[in-house]
Amino acid sequence: MAADGRDGRKAMVDPRLLELLACPLTKGPLSWDPERGELISRVAKLAYPVRDGIPIMLPSEARAISAEDLLAPPPPRLSGPS
To answer: Which end of the chain is more exposed for a tag (fewer CB within 10 A), N or C?
Structure first.
């Protein structure tokens, strides 16, 4: 399955948009995982998909993060608005 779930291209998201996003459940920070094309909420243990460059911020669309994913080093954190 492709990183963006569609045509095999890696998902790309505007970095300025990423700085504004927060987990809809915890309101906490998100980390970008470019390998999987997902936004990661480590507190909620969810990975939100990015499809065609659009973050899908619905908990019903998110993937639960496995214990293996939590043990892996976290992807870089996104800085919030300053």
So the answer is: C
